[in-house]
Write a sequence for this structure.
């Protein structure tokens, strides 16, 4: 594939069904990090993310964090003569309920209406994480000389996350 606007549109068109199927898998896992009752779902979400990255050809390390949620680091390419780009995404979501919130669809079931996607995580941040992964795939298939790293974590939406120290005096 050549990196042109037309080439990118062709890539997106060819992979859209695969992307939607994968996004549905991710949406179906309620990775609600703020609720300890979902710790098993957090582990399933981390395993799904690791398996997906490996399927795309990455070397993946899954780190278990004591008292926290797993962190994944994925590597595509390790050439010291090439620039390295790191992409960060979180794979956890906020709680959601069709019964108590204004959801027209089940929040943990991927729903497509026209060109619009519904489901918890489709835009924050599971959908963007998969979009970045497909972007990396397109770049690597086109021969772009770059190393790509992915850092994925599962407690961005959690109360356990600590704030960085304040800047300045």
């Amino acid at each position: 594939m050549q990196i042109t606007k037309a080439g990118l549109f062709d890539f997106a068109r060819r992979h859209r069904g695969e992307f939607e199927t994968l996004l549905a898998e991710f949406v179906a896992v309620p990775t609600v990090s703020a609720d300890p009752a979902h710790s098993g779902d957090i582990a399933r979400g981390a395993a799904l993310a690791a398996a997906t990255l490996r399927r795309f050809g990455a070397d993946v390390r899954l780190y278990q964090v004591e008292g926290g949620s797993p962190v994944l680091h994925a590597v595509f390419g390790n050439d010291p003569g090439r620039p390295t780009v790191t992409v960060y995404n979180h794979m956890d979501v906020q709680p959601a309920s069709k019964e108590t919130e204004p959801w027209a669809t089940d929040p943990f079931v991927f729903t497509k209406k026209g060109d619009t996607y519904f489901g918890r995580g489709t835009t924050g941040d599971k959908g963007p994480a998969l979009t970045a992964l497909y972007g990396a795939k397109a770049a690597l298939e086109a021969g772009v000389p770059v190393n790509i790293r992915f850092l994925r974590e599962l407690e961005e939406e959690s109360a356990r996350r600590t704030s960085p120290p304040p800047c300045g005096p």
Observations:
- The chain has a mean pLDDT of 93.
- DSSP finds three helices and six strands in the chain.
